[in-house]
Amino acid sequence: MATWTFEEAQEFYDEAKAAYKAALKSYSYGTGDRTLTRQKLETLEKSMLRWKGVLDDIKSGASQSRPKVKRGVPYV
After folding, report:
1. Per residue in 10-37, pLDDT tens?
2. Which residue among 38, 41, 67, 73 is the one 20 to 30 A from 48 at the CA level?
3. Do the Cβ atoms of 17 and 48 come closer than 8 Å?
């Protein structure tokens, strides 16, 4: 898992939230020969919830874990 700063995670969350709100207003529209189709609401919601979870982990300190040590007997 990549380590994100609080500011980076907040920025990604804000962008995901803005995209979700924009998709709520209109999924697809067009004028003349141009069209704009936004992502599916489910995908945007998952992204928004993922970044909310990252923010919550950073706030609670859960993302600050100790290094993992693997122990075992080498196969020779």
Report:
1. 999 999 999 888 888 777 777 888 887 7
2. 67
3. yes
Burial of 72 (C-beta count, 10 Å sphere; 0-12/13-18/19+): exposed
Q: Which residue has the tokens 């067009």?
A: 30
pTM beyond cutoff 0.85: no
What is the greatest pairwise CA distance in the chain? 70
Taking a C-beta distance cutoff of 8 angstroms, is the pair 12, 20 a contact?
A: no
- Provide the token pair at 65: 């874990």
CA distance 52 to 7: 12
| CA dihedral sign, ordered 54, 40, 18, 24 | negative
Q: pLDDT for 47-61, tens place per residue?
A: 999 999 989 988 887
- For residue 38, the tally of other CB atoms under 10 A from its CB is 17
